[in-house]
Write a structure and sequence with these properties.
It is built from 34 helices and 8 strands. The chain is an alpha/beta fold and 681 residues long. The chain folds into 3 domains: 1-13 and 281-449, no CATH class; 26-277, Rossmann fold, CATH 3.40.50.300; 608-681, Leucine-rich Repeat Variant. Helix 12 (283-296) runs antiparallel to helix 13 (299-311) and helix 18 packs across helix 19 (405-421). The longest helix is centred in the N-terminal third of the chain and has 24 residues, at 89-112. The two termini are 58 Å apart.
């Protein structure tokens, strides 16, 4: 059940028709740099960027990160709010980003300190090294040996101090792994965030070091009250820690004016929110962009491009680059007529994207069906979100199209390369990831899927729900999964199950075990269907986890799946299923439990007898009488107790015979059962 290829970075080198550097927004970048410097000196900063879709907020944010947040002094966690289906997902994404960045920092420090650790004769592995850095002893050692030089320990201390976030990263990981609060709650997670900030405050970061949290794609939410509560509790927890002392934290939100309004109202009264409006490029920057694009365009397109630059009053870079890409694509194979070029410049964003998709279809005429699947998969991703080729493969039914997984993957990669070429995606070769385009392009792609606004909203809702489900079942986010259950009642299983089933195909045994465990937090028919599928897994541990999760689920019908588990070759799986069925009020389970009384594993039979006694169905009486003849004392004991619960006079002779049993426990159980029968008669 693994993908038929090695999990390594691919060597694809997709290139776009137009490759341009960032231009403009220098005043904004300077202001953001000032906020970052203030955070580095211990001043807590809350900042918001607001602007209409396509105005260049995300591009400015990416340029700021590239220029100022890739140094060792900055630990940066970037989040895409468009990926949040529920408010509490914010903390899941935030803590995962912090953990990922902290692990990268400590891996670098661990590798660089190899010789010094050898000189100290330590055999720390990476986990132990992190624990040492996060310990109070290490903190005291830094203070005690500050004036000494020369020894390996002092040199190791000096090396760690050269990395401003070495101790801070170890502290973050220590809090995230040690302080396990209740998952998913809007009270517990802010507390956990506060504990993390307090730990950083107490241990301190290096001089000029700062923690940056960037939240992009903030839009007006449907459930504004829930999101208002999220940002308010986040601001309260952060401001409370900031009031206790210097806190090198810079929180930056970027989104539409309506989305930033919710944050403004939530933050008010806790800390001042500094706002910057992004309204498009200045006239000077617009001209610079126009000249740079013109040099990249074919000669036949340059005159019409000049007129387009002069006529555009909004000066939003997203649409301008889309127009330029369409012009370049039109002139790629032949010299287009002037009228066609003029039509491109006047076209709406939706038509521009449709033209680019037509070019892709012309370049890959045999892939029409696969292209439609790719469109449905990518169109409803959040703007400016990163994904891998295998992520897309989960959403595409390549086997249904008559392709093997390997063939389908290769063809999808070729199609994605065309999307990159025509500006619908960007590609990052070092990480082998793709990134969706701006919000205006993503909305235009969605219109290619459906022209009906209500249908697009419904599809977007379903896609975000399914994406949240895929994300959290892989990470055992139990609290979030439980919160997703009500939404799953409004979604059709056939829309959610196929990608989840394809997801399982690419997972290792350990990953499938974690997924099986996580599904136990999701009281939904979708979880039951997936767990039932995992009951057919080749590995016993996966099947045991699936059976246990089915046993844990409440408020959902699991009988048929648990009955399936009774036929498992593993006695552990049968035991779990029998134990769960004994607690379910269903007539269908009685016959199954009766059959288990003769199971080859006597403990399974004992659990079945216990469940039959609890159910009170007298059909089990003769079978329990027979079970009292078994050689296993615990089965005889449990069968006797069950007969007492059923209070059927047919059991009296058999129970009286057990009063002479060789096991004292069986004799006591038989006596108790007979006493109960007398009281009930």
């Amino acid at each position: 059940m693994r993908w038929p290829w090695k999990p390594k970075k691919q060597q694809a080198r997709h290139k776009s028709l137009l490759s341009l550097p960032f231009i403009g927004q220098q005043a904004l970048l300077t202001a953001l740099e000032g906020h970052l410097q203030a955070a580095g000196s211990g001043q807590l900063r809350f900042v918001a960027l607001s602007g209409e879709p396509g105005s260049g907020k995300t591009a400015a944010l990416a340029e700021f990160v590239f220029r100022h947040c890739t140094t060792s002094k900055v630990l940066c966690a970037q989040l895409n709010a468009g990926a949040f289906f529920l408010p509490q997902e914010f903390y899941v994404y935030l803590f995962e980003a912090l953990q990922r960045r902290s692990e990268a920092v400590l891996q670098a420090v661990y590798a660089q300190s190899k010789r010094l650790r050898k000189a100290l004769a330590t055999d720390w592995d990476e986990q132990e090294f992190r624990s040492v850095l996060a310990s109070a002893e290490w903190h005291h050692a830094q203070q005690r040996l500050a004036g000494h030089q020369g020894s390996p320990l002092v040199r190791l201390l000096h090396l760690v101090r050269q990395h401003p976030w070495a101790v801070g990263a170890a502290t973050i990981l220590d809090v995230l792994t040690r302080e396990r609060f209740a998952r998913g709650g809007q009270i517990a997670e802010p507390q956990r965030w506060a504990r993390l900030l307090q730990a950083l405050q107490q241990r301190g970061a290096g001089e000029g070091a700062s923690l940056v949290v960037l939240v992009d794609q903030v839009e007006a939410p449907a459930a504004a009250a829930d999101w208002h509560l999220l940002w308010r509790t986040f601001a309260e927890a952060t401001a409370e820690v900031g009031a206790q002392g210097p806190l090198p934290l810079f929180v930056l939100w970027a989104g539409t004016p309506a989305g930033i309004e919710v944050i403004r109202e939530a933050v008010e009264g806790h800390l001042p929110l500094v706002e910057h409006a992004v309204t498009g490029l200045s006239q000077e920057d617009w001209q610079r962009l126009g000249r740079r694009v013109q040099r990249s365009l074919p000669r036949a397109c340059q005159a019409v491009w000049q007129r387009q630059v002069a006529a555009d009053a909004e000066r939003h870079p997203a649409r301008a680059l889309l127009v330029a890409t369409c012009l370049a694509a039109l002139a790629e194979t032949q010299t287009p007529p002037a009228t066609a070029l003029a039509e491109v410049c006047q076209a709406a964003t939706t038509e521009l994207v449709a033209r680019l998709l037509d070019v892709v279809r012309q370049r890959a005429p045999a892939e029409a069906a696969l292209l439609q699947q790719l469109l449905a998969a990518c169109a409803f991703l959040p703007p400016e979100s990163a994904f891998t080729l295998d992520d897309v493969l989960v959403w595409c039914d390549v086997e249904g199209a008559g392709l093997t997984l390997r063939e389908g993957r290769a063809r999808l990669e070729a199609l994605l390369g065309l999307w990159v070429r025509y500006g619908l995606l960007t590609y990052h070769p070092h990480s082998a990831t793709y990134t969706t385009s701006s919000s205006v392009v993503q909305e235009a792609l969605r219109q290619q899927v459906s022209q009906e606004l209500a249908v697009r909203h419904q599809l977007a809702w379903q896609r975000r729900l399914a994406a949240a489900l895929l994300y959290h079942v892989q990470r055992d986010s139990g609290g979030v999964l439980a919160a997703l259950a009500p939404a799953l009642e409004q979604a059709l299983p056939e829309q959610l199950l196929p990608p989840l089933r394809r997801l399982l195909q690419g997972k290792t045994q350990e990953e499938r075990q974690r997924i099986a465990t996580a599904l136990g937090f999701l009281p939904s028919p979708v979880a039951v269907a997936l767990l039932q599928e995992l009951l057919g897994d080749e590995h016993e541990r996966v099947r045991s986890r699936a059976a246990q999760s089915l046993a844990n689920l409440q408020g959902v019908d699991t009988v048929s799946a648990l009955l399936q588990a009774l036929a498992d070759p593993s006695s552990d799986v049968r035991w779990i299923a029998a134990h769960a069925l004994g607690r379910i009020d269903s007539e269908a389970t009685v016959e199954a439990l009766i059959a288990l009384l003769a199971d080859e594993d006597k403990e399974v039979g004992r659990i079945a007898a216990e469940g039959l006694g609890r159910k009170g169905d007298r059909r089990a009486v003769p079978h329990l009488i027979a079970a009292m003849q078994d050689s296993y004392p615990l089965l005889r004991e449990t069968a006797a107790l069950a007969l007492g619960q059923l209070a059927d006079e047919r059991a009296i002779p058999a129970l009286q015979a057990r009063l002479e049993d060789s096991s004292a426990q069986v004799r006591q159980s038989a006596a108790r059962a007979l006493a109960r029968l007398r009281r009930s008669s």
